[in-house]
Amino acid sequence: MKNLAAFLICLLSQCILQAQKGIIPQPQEIVFNGQDFLVQSPIITFDDSLIYPEAVFLKESLNRFYHQSLQIVRLQNSAPEKDPPLFIQLQTIRPDTLLPIAWYNLNVDRNRINITATEKTGIFYGIQSLIQLGYFNADKQFAFRGVKISNDYPNMKWRGMHLDVSRHFFPKEFILKYIDLLAMNKMNVFHWHLTDDQGWRIEIKKYPKLTSAGGWRKGSMIGHYNEQRYDTIRYGGFYTQEDIREVVDYAEKRHVTIVPEIEMPGHALAALSAYPQFSCTGGPFEVEKSWGVFDDVFCPKEETFTFLQDVLDEVVKLFPGKYIHIGGDECPKTRWEKCKACQKRMKENNLKDEMALQSYFIQRIEKHLNSKGKQIIGWDEILEGGLAPNAAVMSWRGIEGGIEAAHLHHPVVMTPGTHCYFDHYQGNPRQEPIAIGGFTSLEKVYSFNPIPEKLSPEERTYILGAQGNVWTEYINTSRDVEYMAVPRMSALAEVLWTNETSRNYIQFTERLTEFSGLLKKMDVNVAHSWQRPVVSTIQEGNELKVMATPPVPGKEILYEISNPKVDFKGIIATLKYTQPLSLETVMDGARFRFIVTENDAQYESSIIIRKHLATGKNVSFKNPPSEHYPGKGGFTLVDGIEAVLPRINNEWLGWSGEDMIATIDLGATQTISKADIGMLNDPTNWIYKPSEIQLERSEDGIEWKDIIYSTIVPTRPNPRIKYMTFRPVASRYIRISAKNPGIIPAGNPGAGKNSWIFFDEIIIE
User: What is the pLDDT of residues 276-292, one digit of tens each?
Assistant: First the structure.
């Protein structure tokens, strides 16, 4: 029994060792042999001139990360009588059976390091795995961990990352670094969003004003959209065609294909500011300095198609990849509805409505690009009015668009906002830089499954893969891009490379800690949000408690509690967290601070608790909140946590086109005189304040009486809270009815759609 126990302990230790010394993304088959090998013969050999660039890449990478200077030697076809002084051997093979694209084997043993593959992409990915195996031992000698990786290859064809350079422009040098990050994670598609309302970023020789005028705006929005603040600093930039050739060449050497996006028919104000004749009204226009969706779009007349075809002809020559992204999303039909030329074209082509006109527009562009040997890909709105015959669909408004396209046997790239939008918050918004909203944690990205279960086996073959999107309305600098993209990029990379049965989030985080060392050597601004404890409130019986969850199981958490207005700066937490903390002895506004330590670094989260008569009480609804914004159910309104602006999905409840009618059971009759209701007003995202709020009280939950309230302005007003006071009344039940404003009026984002109302904490005092 002792021997068996020792064996199991040894086996467990080996498993932990392998997890800690693993690779991102996790290979399909990997076994560590428990031995590490010093670099003694600094030679790289290759057997095929086609993979010589990979040998050069390996040499440069080992010098970059580990300051190792290696030689490169061509290994002749005739085998020597005995092994030459090899150290790293790159070798192509001709398999007996058909192997997946990018397949490779990697073996590190006593004699040599051997990377074999059927073609150069596999060699390259083997090199990326090898780089992660390097380290310096206790004697500061460079070594590789002994390992055997067998039959490693990607699970999905499209493993992509997107970057918006229109809202904020990033220099060519950073684009090259971004491509390096993709390559390190074995991602193979860079979706380059080059044009939008806020700037045109690609030089077009035939239309120079696209960059000289459309590439610059007179100012930019600062802060969040709700604040409506702007600077007056001229802002812009663009990439010359020579820049783009350099980037494309750099990406090709790293086995990354670039998919350029030229937005149409909407998101066109930057182009129309330079060439207003391609609009419906004739302008004049300015490059937009605000974020959002705008009514002025390309007019589908012949001269517009000629212009766009000319633009795309130059784009096609710059990008050798298969796909050209044409956008197709968020195109208001306001101008088309009143445009005589548009209505005439609809009549001439028997188009029943403006949706069909958009489909006609996309199909015209597709036909032209097909004639140039390219295929179009667009956001899932290109399904509206009828999908172009050969188009691929990028599903961003959930996965439904991707499912529909797969049903139609069209290629699909899944990129839903729920899991793949890296402009969302990734941690406690109180500790994160301003973001557009939403909440997409590292763990949530890792949980993503790009292939919907409801698809048939044949339909699943149309799912090419997925990508992460980095929209830059609130991302101003290259460092900010890195923070928002890394390490969520790595989580998505593993989802797309590794079979689902081989993925484990806890092991992934252990490997990520080590992988971050390479990122640090690249001077990447890695987000550590995932390493902070997650803090929330829970109901235990009739009591509200504060709970902290470590980023990975087993991590020790320390905590402190302070009274309102106490600063934590310089204080060291000394209390060990073992169970949820009671609020019985704390004041309203108390702050809880939780800390974990990792490699001598501290990661902390804090939370301020609002204690009031409704805190932790039961809440019921007449109309349940939307499945898209369910928060934590009724508990969201009384969890003691006030949401921060802008909205965070798990801190808000949302209703689309319906009223919010909530009943709070105070548990016993209480005397009340004040109600503060947290709500949002964000019209650019279709969210409005309720048109009317009614308060009612009841002793039995059956008979109700109105509460006549007055709105007050507090000493420190908060724009998201409606403050209401009234004469003291006794009540057990409080009912809050908030009327939805209804259909969004013309001239606003989402015109004609149902408006949303959003709520968080309801404070009763």
Answer: 999 999 999 999 999 98
Catalytic site residue 267? yes
Q: Furthest-apart CA pair in the chain: how many Å? A: 100
Distance CA 720, CA 726 (A): 20
Taken in order of first residue, the domains within the chain and their CATH numbers are 17-152 (3.30.379.10), 158-521 (3.20.20.80), 532-609 (2.60.40), 618-764 (2.60.120.260)
Strand pairing category for 653-656 and 721-739: unpaired
CB count in 10 Å sphere of residue 140: 6
Q: Assess whether pLDDT exceeds 70 at residue 1.
A: no
Model pLDDT, residue 36: 86
Cβ 270 vs Cβ 195: under 8 Å: yes
Residue 544 CB partners (closer than 8 Å, separation 6+)? 537, 538, 583, 615, 616, 639, 640
Q: Which of 164, 196, 203, 560 is catalytic?
A: 196
Over residues 541-545, the mean pLDDT reads 83
How far, in Å, CA of 127 to CA of 58, rounded?
Answer: 6
CA distances from 97 to 104, 152, 153, 472 (A): 14, 15, 15, 45
Which tops the pLDDT comparison, 628 or 76? 628
- Distances 152 to 29, 109, 506, 625 between C-alpha atoms, Å: 6, 18, 21, 45
Rounded Cα–Cα distance for residues 462 and 482 (Å): 31
Residue 710 buriedness (CB in 10 A; 0-12 / 13-18 / 19+): exposed
Q: For position 76, what pLDDT does the model report?
A: 65
Structural tokens at position 293? 């969706």
pLDDT in tens, 214-253: 999 999 999 888 778 999 999 999 999 999 999 999 999 9
Of the candidates 246, 310, 313, 330, the residue annotated as catalytic is 330
- Does the annotation count 330 as an active-site position? yes
Q: Residue 369 and residue 504: Cα distance in Å, rounded?
A: 42
Catalytic residue among 191, 255, 267, 325, which?
267
- Dihedrals phi, psi of 545, to nearest 5 degrees: -130, 160
What pLDDT was estimated at residue 23?
A: 95
- Tell me the DSSP string of 110-160: SS-EEEEESSHHHHHHHHHHHHHHEEE-TTS-EEEEEEEEEEE--S-SEEE
Q: Single out the residue of 72, 78, 74 nearest to residue 47, CA to CA.
A: 74
Instruction: Express each pLDDT in 498-509 by its tens digit.
Output: 999 999 999 999
